[in-house]
Protein 1
Amino acid sequence: MPSSGGCEAGGDGPPLIAYAAVPHRYFDERAERVAGLYDGLFFTVGSWDEGVAHQLGPHGAEPVATAWAAAAARNLTHLRRSGVVENLLGVHFGESAPWPSPETLLSPTYRQKMERHFGRLGQVAAALGFRGVSIDIEYPSPRYVLDHDIYTFDGYGAEDIVAAAADHGRAATRALLDAFPTAVVFLLPGEVRARPVEHAFMRGVLEAMAERDAPGGLHLGYERSYVLYDAATQVAIPRAAHGWLELDLSPAQRSYWRLRCSVAPGIWPLHMAETGATDYPCRPWSEELGELAVQLAILRRVTTRYVWTFSMHPLWHDHGPEAAAVFGFDQAAFTGAREAVAGWQNILANRRGAMPPADPRLTPLWRAVADFDAGRIDADDLCSRFGTPGTWQVIGLLDNPFVRQAFAAREAVHRLPSAHASVHGRDGAVRWFPFPNRDPTGSVDLRLPFAWYRTDDVSAHLACTLETTREVQTNLCVGWDDGLAVWLDDQLLFDRRAYGHAHGGLLYRDRWLFEEFVPLTIPPGKHRLALTSLNARGRWGFNLRFGDREGYPADGLRFGLATPSGQDVCIEHRCLAGGVEAGTPDALVDG
C-alpha cells in the first residue's frame, strides 16, 4: 500500500482536497487562507468533450490557449507557493451527452475523439502544474445498465457493449498518460461495485495505468462516507473496494493496485442542509460538527493517500459580508449556515493535531486494517473481524412472493446450498452460487451478482456459516431494502418481508446503516446463517453486522461458505434471541 497517510503512518496524514472550484482572483489574493484549510482543489471545466474544448482549447493548441487556462495558471502559481499543491483538473461525463450508447461505444471515430480530448486534458493539466485529473463518470448512470431501452442488441451483443466501454477507458487513459505520465487520476464517484458499462470503463482505466506502472496511481473517490455512519463503518470504508476489486485483476494489476492506488473517502460536511432528504435528523450544528470532527480524524488515520470533501456551497473561502462585497461570493443561506461553515473551517484548521477517539473498541479494527494491508489476513478475514460475512452463497433471481408466488422458491432458503440442485426461478432454473461481496462495512448490494439486469420485483436467498469457539452475546444489526428475513440455524431472528411497498432504503434516517438490532446469544460451534431478501424496485440489498448497538463488531466470529459438505453444520443449536428461546421457525423477533 502507498506509504503516505494510513493507519501506521506518521506525519500530517493524507492530503485533503476540496470539490470544487473554478479560476477566481480569490486564489491569487488569499492563497494562504486556502492553505490553512485544504491541501488541494478540484478545478472543474465541465464535460470531457464540450468543456475541454471550450475551457482548455482544441487539441494541438498551446496549453494556455484560453482565458480559463490563463486564469487557472495564475491561481495555481499562488496556491503552490502557499503549499496548496494537490490540485486536480476535473471533467465529467454529461447526463444527456451521447456517451454511452451503441452509436458511441461501437464507433472508432468516437473513440478517437475521446483520445484527443483526454490527451488535451492531460497536456493542459501537466503544463499548468496540476497534480493530476479527476473524471466524474456518475451522471449517465441510467445508461450504464444493459436493460436500458437504448440498447436494442440489433447486430451486437451485451459483451460487445461491455468490451467497448473497457476499450474506451483504456484509450482515454493512454492518451491522458501520453501527455501527463505522472498524473494522479481520480475517478468519481469511485464505487467499483458499479453497473456493467460503468465498471468496464473503470476497469479499462485501471488496466491502462497498471500496464505503464503509472506513478500517480488511480484513486477511487468514494461517496459512501458522505454519511455520518458509526465509527466502525468509517474505519472500514477505505478498504471497502480492495477485496472485491482484486478478484477481477491479474497478478500484475493487483500488485499495481496495492502499490499505487487507493480508496479516497469523501466527506460531505453540509449534508444535513444540502442533501434534500426529509428524514435527516434535525439537530444542533454543534452535534453535527462534533461527529464530523471524529469522522475526519478516523478517515485520515486509516486512509492511505487522499481524503476529499464535497459541498454545494464552496467552503474554501471566507464567509461573511466582506467576502461577499469584495469577491462577489454568494453566502450560504440555510438555517445555521454561519455556525456550520465556521465550525467546519475550524475543524479543518485544527485537523493536523486531531486524533480519533480513544475508544478501546477501535483498537482491534485498526489492527485488522493493518493486518490486511500487510497481507497477514485476506479480505474474507477482514470482513469477519468487522463482524460480517465476506462471501455468501446466493440463489436467484426468484419471484417476489408479494408480486407472484409461482417461482419464489420459498423453502430453498432452508436447504444447504448445492451446486447440482436447481430450483425454479423467475426466469428459469437457478442454482446456488458463491458471491464474494468482501465488503467489511457489511453492506450488500444484491444488484451486483445479477449484473443489474431486471432486478425489480424479485427476491433471492443467501446463506453462509458462522462459527465461534465460545458463547457470544451480541446483536444482529440490520438495514434493508425492500424486504428481509434472517435465520440462524432453525430460528427466525428477523422478519420484514411483508412490506407491501418499497421500504425507506438502506440508510436509516439518511445516516445509519442499521435500523434494527436483535439481541441474541450465539452458542459455541458452527451455525448456518440464512437470509431472504426481497426487492420491489430500484436499489436492492441489506446491511448486516453482528455487534453492539453502536455498530462495534462482535469479537470471535468467523464466517465461511455454506456448502453441501457442511452437513455437520449444527442446526440443532438453538440461539437465544432477545434473551428467550425464539420458538418455531415462523416466530418473529422484533428488534
Protein 2
Amino acid sequence: MLARIPADVSKRIILSLCAAALMGAACTTLPVATVTYGQGTQFIPSVADNLDNVGLGSAVAIDKDGVPYVSYLGFTEAPKKDAIPIPRPLLNPGVPAVLITSVKSSVWTRGAAAVAQPAVAGIVWPYTPATVKQLSGILPSNTNGTDIVIGADGAPHAVWTGPDGVWETDAGAAGAPTVASQVFAVNPGLSQAGPLGRPSIALDAAGVPWVAFATTTSGVGNVDVATPGKHGWDVTTVATFTLCGGCAQPGATQVLETPDGLEVAYVDPSAGVMVAHQPPAGTAPGAPWLTDTVAAKVAGVGLDAAIAKDGTTYLSYYTGKGTVELASGTSGAWSTAKVAAVTDPDPGAAGNAVWTTGAAVDDTGAVSVTWYDDATRSVMLASGASATALAPVQTPGTLGGTNPALGVSPDGSTTFLSWYDVSTTSLLVGVLGSANGVEIAAPSPTPTAVAVQPTVAACTSSGTTLKISALNVAFDKNCLAATAGKPFKIVFDNKDAGIPHNVSVYDGTTALYPPETPQAGPSVVTYNVPALNAGTYKFQCDVHPTTMFGTFIVAK
C-alpha cells in the first residue's frame, strides 16, 4: 500500500518527517572528527510504520539501485485500559506478520513477506505475502528477528524464526504470490526464543538462497546452513559448540557470499567470534567447513556482518569487555578495532534482543557501524573510510530506540538506519545523506499543503513567554512573535494523546537553536530560546512540517 493512500483516520497513523543537524560527536569515547560520508549532510529520522506493535527484529537490505527494504516483525497490540481498540486498515497487511517496508521517490510502500491471515478478497498487499498460519502464534518472546536480501531481479527474500522453527520466503515475479517454506522445524514449539538464534540469509552467485542459524539442545550448540534441495531444505551443520554456565543462548549467525564461496559468522561461547568457510570447489562431498577464530574470548552479542566489494568481511559485535568492536579481514587474516565504549549486555539476561549491532560497507570500502547504547538509551552510528578511521555521527531522534540495523547504498551516498522505538512500539528509519539527494517519505497520508515559508501574519510580541498548543495535529496559532535581542520561552501544550509534536524555529532550513525532541501528548514543555536578531522566520513541528507551521516574527 502506498503512503499516498489515506489508510485510517486514527491519530496513530501519522508518519513523521523530522530534519535535524548531523555532524558532531556522539556520546561515546570515539574521537571527535568531521565525518565525510558520501555527500552526507543530514540525518533524517522518519516513522516508517506505527500501527500495532511493529519494528522488532528489523533488518535492512539495499537493492542495486540503492533502494532500501526493511523487514521486521509485527504483533497485535493490546489496547490500553479503557482505550478503544484501533482497527487495522484493510490496505495494511494484518498482524501477526513478517512485514516489509520500502521507500522510493518519497513514497512508502508497506507490505509483508508473510501473514497469518490472507487479505480480504479484492485487496492486494505489496510483495504479495505468503499465508503462514503458524504466524498466528508468534510473540515478541518466542521470535528471534528477521533478515532480508534482494535478488538481482529486485525480489525480496526474507527469513525469520518463530516458535516452530525457521521460515523463508521467496517473492516471485511482480504480482506473483510469495512462496513460504519451513527451513528447520522445532517440535515441540518454543515458548521462549532462546534455543533458536537469529537467522540470516544470502543469495549465492546463481541466486539460490542460503539460510544460517544456530540451535542448542541439552547444552550443545549447532551452527547450520540450509539451501533448497529436491525434497525440502538440505541442512548442513558447519560448526558445533558447548554452552557454558551463564553464557547467552545462541546468538545471531551471519551468512555471506564471498569471492571464495559462502562463509558463516557465529559465536562460540567458549572461543569467541568465529567464521566457518565453505569447502573449496572440487572438495569431496561432505567435507567439513574450515573455521577461523576472528576474535577470541569475546561475548559476540549482537553479531552482524557485511561483505565489501573486494571480498573483505566486516563483523560488528559487543565484546562483553565494555566495548563495541569491528573485525575485518578474510580467511586466516583478521584484525579488530574498537568502535566505542559501552555498557555491557548481560549474556544470561532476558531481553538481549535490544542489543544488536549493524555493519555496512559501500563499494568504495567506506564502513558504517551502528549499535544500541544503554547509557543514553538511544541508537548510535559511526562511519569512516576504513575500520580504523570511524568517527561518530549524530543520530537525533533515536532516543528510546533499540534493536538497530543498517544498510548503505552501493555508491555510499546514503545510509539507512532502522530501529524499534520502545515507547511508541513503532519502526523508525533514519536516512543519512545529502540534503538534496535523500529521498524520504512524506507524512502519510500525504497532505495537500505545501511546505513553504508561511506568509507574514499579523501578530505582536507577547513578552518573554509565548504560549502555543496542538490539538488534532494542528497548532492553535499561525503566528508567534518575540522581542529582538531578548531570550524568551515557548510554553508548548501538546493535547494530542499519543502523538509526538514539538515547536522549532527556523530561518529557511536552518534551525535557530537545536530542535527539541518531539514529545507525545498530553504533555506541556517549556523551551528556553536564546535571543534572536530581528527578522521574519518560521516555526514548525518537526514531525509534521507540511501541516503544522506558522510565521515567527522577531521585532525590535
Protein 3
Amino acid sequence: MALEHIRNFSIIAHIDHGKSTLADRLLQVTDTISERDMTAQVLDTMDLEREKGVTIKASAVRMNYTAEDGKTYDLNLIDTPGHVDFGYEVSRAMYACEGALLVVDAAQGIEAQTLANLYMALEADLEIIPVINKIDLPAARPDEIAEEINNLLGTPVEEIIQISAKSGSNIQEVLTAIIERVPPPKGDSDAPLRALIFDSHYDPYKGVVAYVRVFDGQIEPTDTFQLMATGASLSPVEIGIFSPHMQATKKLATGEVGYIATGFKSVNECRVGDTFTLAARPADEPLPGYQKAKPMVFAGVYPVDGEDYEDLRDALAKLQLNDAALVYEPETSQALNFGFRCGFLGLFHMEIIQERLEREYDLDIIATAPSVEYEVLMQNGETIRIDSPAELPDGGDIDEVREPWMKIQIFTPTEYYGVVMELVTQRRGIYIDQEYPTPNRVQLNFEIPLSELIIDFFDYLKSGTRGYASLDYQYADYRPDDLVKLDVLINKESVDALAAIVHRDDAYRKGQALVSKLKDLIPRQLFAVPIQASAGGRVISRANVKALRKDVLAKCYGGDVSRKRKLLEKQKKGKKRMKSVGNVDIPQEAFLAVLRLRDD
C-alpha cells in the first residue's frame, strides 16, 4: 500500500483509563474482528492482564478502514504496556509510530503515568491526539479535564475528542482524527532494509516471533536477515501481519508493521530495540535507541518443597522465552536450600512473574524480600556489584557502598501535599521542585533511593492520599551512603535469606522491629531460641523464644531432694545437647517479615 495511506499509532494512558476498551471499539468499528469473535479486552490475552486491568504484553494489529473520502487506509495500532516497569518497551513501540492517542479518564483526569508516557511520546516527536474517555460516568468532568489538557498541551478545547469506549459513542471521530492528524510514515523502499523490533513473543512451532516496523527497504520471506546488535543471522520461518491474529503475507513494505517468525529458540538472540537488515546488503547503521533491559530489583525464589527445584528451573526457562527482561541464576541459602536469584524490571514485574509461576506452572514458591543492586568500592580500588545482601564483603575491606537512586514524580491533589512530603522525607527522599499543571493538583519531583521505593512505598502513598496520588519513576544514578549489612542470627546461626542492607541510622530501629516480629513468628522449641540482629559487627537487638517446658518432677512426689536434683541435672544436659544439634524450623511468614517492618 502507498505510504500516504498508512497510519501507525499507539494508545497511551494511565492504568485503567480505558486503553484496551478503546482498542476493542476500534477493532469493531473497522470490522477487523467479527461480533462472534469479540471479547472484552481482545488484545489482552493473559488472564492476569484482564484481572489487573493493565496491559503487560505489547501487541499490534492492522485495521483496514475506508474513510469518508472513499480511500482505504491501513491503520496499525501498536498497543503498549501500561506500567512504568515496562517503560523501555513503551519507548520502542512509540518510536515505531507517528502518532499517539492520549486517553484521559473523564473522572480521574491526568495522572503521573499519563504524563510520563506523554513526555516519552513528545520526545519521539509523535502527533498527540487527546481523547477524554468515560464521559458516561456519573462522576465525569469532561469540561474540566479538557481545560487540564489544554493547559498541558495547548490543544484547543474544541479539538479534544470526548468519547465513551464502553458504549462506543464518538469512536468514528477518533478514526477520522487519526487519518487527518497522524502523518503518514516516511522511508525509502529502495534503501537497504532497516526494521525495528519493538516486541517479541515465543511460539513453540515458529520460535521467537519478532514484531517489526519497517523503516527502509522491504521484507520478503526468501531473504536472509541479520540482526545489527547481536550479529545473529537467519532465514525467516514466516513473515506476516497481525489482523489481530498472525496472518502470513508475501511481503512487508516500507512503513508497514508486521512480524518475522525467526525460528530462534531464545529471546536473547532477538532483543527488543534491535534492527533487522539484509545479510547480503546490510544498512550502514542501526536504528537508534537500542539497549539491553536492565534488572533493577532482585529476589531469591525458592520452591517450598525441595523436590520441585527442577520444575522451578524449567518454569523460569519457559518464562524467559517470552520475557527477555527476566534474568535468573542458581543460588543456595542455608535456610531455604536450593533456589534461584532472579532479576526483575521492578516490583510489579516481580509480582507478575511470581503469579505466573504459581498459576501457569502450579508451583509453591517462597520469594525473599526484594533488594537492589549495590556497587561496592573495595579498599584495593576494585569495584564489585552485588544483588544480594548476603554477598556484601566484610566491613573492613569496604571503602564505600553506593546504591541506586531514582527520580520520582508524584501527582496528587493539593490537599495531600503534606502527607506526600512527610512520606518521602521519612524514606530519605530529597525534594527537587514542584509544578501545578492545574489549580487543584500538584506534581512533586523528588529523588529517592530505590531500596526505599521497592518495598511498600506505593501502598503507603495510596493509603495516605486515599488513592488519588499517582507515581512515576526513572533511574537517576548510583550514590555513596553510610550503608551497613543487617544480619539476623537465629540460635546463633546467620540466616542469609533474612539479611538486608540498610542505612546506619535506620539499622537499630529496623533490627529491633525485625527481631520483635520474628519472636512472634518462630514456633517454640524444647530449648530456648535466641534471635539476634547485628549491624556493623555488633549485636544491636536480641529476643528469646522461650522453651517449651516439661515438668520432669511430676513423678517425684515426696522422697529425697537429691533425686529431684539428679533429674533436673539430667534435663539440663539434654537441653544443652539439643540446643547444639537441634534445627530451628523457620516458617514462610518470617521471610515476609522484612517486607512488613513499617506496619507497626
Protein 4
Amino acid sequence: MGPLKIGPLQIGIALPHVLNDPEEFVEEATQGYAAAHPHLIRQVQGGVVRNLKKNPGEVAVIIGGGSGHYPTFAGVVGSGLAHGAVIGNVFSSPSSQRVLNVCKEAESGGGVLLSYGNYAGDVMNFNLAQEQLIREGIPCKTVLITDDIMSASKDETFKRRGIAGALVVFKVSGAAAEAGYSLDEVFRVATESNARTRTVGVAYSGCTVPGKIEPLFTVPQGKMALGLGIHGEPGLSESEIPTSRELAADLVDRLLEETPPSCAGESHTRLAVLVNGLGGVKYEELFVFYNDVSKILKEKNIEIVEPEVGELVTSFEMAGLSLTFTWLNDELNSLWRTPSYTPGYKKGNISVTSAENSSSFTEIGEENFLQGSADSQKCAQVIVEIIRRIASSTEEHSDEYGRLDSIAGDGDHGIGMARGARSAASAARDCAQKGGGAGSTLITAADAWSDDAGGTSGFIWGIILREIGREIGDETQPDFKKIIDAVVRATSVVTDFGKAKLGDKTLVDVLVPFAESLKSTTSTTLVEAWKASNNVAQAAARSTADLLPKIGRARPHAEKSLGHQDPGASSLAMIIEVVSDYLETSENE
C-alpha cells in the first residue's frame, strides 16, 4: 500500500449545487440559516445579528464579506464571537448600505469594530460605511485581516489578503468586547492578533459558483496548487501531491519562517493552530494532517493551545486545506480560550439568553428622489433606455468578463456586473415612472447597482452613477458642458476612493483617459465628443493587456494576466461604447 495522500482526484466536472434560482441563492441560504437558528441569530437587511439580549455600552464586533465561506462569516455570530455579519453575494463584498445597516442593528452604545479580509471591494465598501457611522456619532474602527503569507512578501504584509486566520481575530475581538474592553482596547487586541497570525493554504481542485457549470480554476490531476485564494483565486504554483507528512513539514516550515518579529524573543512559543478544510477535503483527512503537524511542533517544544480542526473558512466544494498559526501572548491566550457559542463555532461551556426577536428588515435604498422638471424627466427617460442597453450588453458579455477575471482573479466580475446592471435598469425605470428627474434616476440606479453587484465593481459603478447624478440634478436638461463636468467629477471621486493609478491594470486605465479626452475636446456636440473619446477608451482597454496588476486580487497572479485585458477596464469600455452607439443612433433618427 502506498503512502497516504490528501485530496480527491480531479474528475473534470463541477459538483452539483442544491439551489433554485442562482440569483436568489444567497438570500434563500440566509433565510434558511436564520430559520434554523432563531434562538441565536436573526436576519436583518444586509446580513445577520445576534438574537441575544444586548449589553448596553458593549463594543459591537461586525465582520463580513462575500458568501460561500460558511461558517465564516454568518456562522460565527453569537456569544463570545461576532455581534453581526454583513453578507455579500457569492465571493463578492457587500455594499456599504448593507454594512451600515448591520452595524446599526447590532451596536449598543460602545462603538463598532469592523473586521474583514483585505480585499479591495471590502475595503472600499466598509470604509464608506465607517465614514457614515462616524458622521452619525457612532465611534468605529477597522482591523483588516492580512494573514495569507503567499499573497505578498514580508516587506509588504499590509498588502496580504485575509483567509482562515480571520477566525482567530474575530474570536479574540469578540471575547474582548464581552469582557468589557473599550473600543480602543478591542481594536488594540484585534490588531495584535492579526499581526501575530499567519496562514498558508493548498488546493487540489477549484470551486464552482452556484449557477455555473465550470470551476473558477482547475488543478491538473495528481497536482497540488500552493497559495490559493478563498474566492476561487488559483494557486501560485503547482507540484506533485505530497504525503501528509511531507505537506505538514513544508507548511509548518513556511509558517515558522514567518514568525512575527515581536514574537522572536519570547522564551516560550504558544500557538493557536487551525487546520481548515476548504470544503472538499473530509474531516478524517484533516485529522491525519493535524496529527503530522502536532508531532512536528511537539518535537520543536512548541505548545499548541486549543487547536481547531475542521471547516472554518470554506470555499464551496474546493478540495483544499490551510494551516494557521497565531503566536499567543498572555492576553491573547486568555481571550482565545474564552468560551463561545455560535451556530457554526462552539468552544467551552456557555449559556445564552435569546432576545426572542423576529427577523428585522430595515429597507436599504428607500426611495428618496426629487420630482424632476419636465425637461429633466425627459432626460430621465433617455437615461432609463441607456441603462437598459447597458444591462443587456453586460449580460451578453458576462461570460467573457468572467473568463478574463478568472485568469488572475476569482472569476466573478461578469456575474457581478450583470447583476448590478439589471438592478440599476429596474430601479432607474421605477424612479423615472414616478416622476424622478435625471439626477435622481441616476442616483437611484447607483444605489441599486452598488447593493446588488457588491464587490469593487459595484462600489465603483455606484460612485460613477451617483456622482454624475448629483452633478446634473433634477432641475434642467443637462447641456454638453454639464455632462462632461459630471464625468470628470465622477472620475475624480473614483480615483480618490479607490486609490488605483494609471498603469495599475484596473478600470482607471480606461476611465481617466476617457474623461481627459472629454474634458479637452474641441468638438461642438456631445455626440462627436463622446465618439472620439470612445475611441480613446477602446484603445486604453486593449492596452491593459500589456500591463501587470499592482493592486487587488489579481496582483499575486500578475504574470498570468499578461497578454489579457483587465476585466474592469473591458466592461467600462463596453459601457462607454453602448452610450456612444445610442447617442449616434439618436442623432440620426
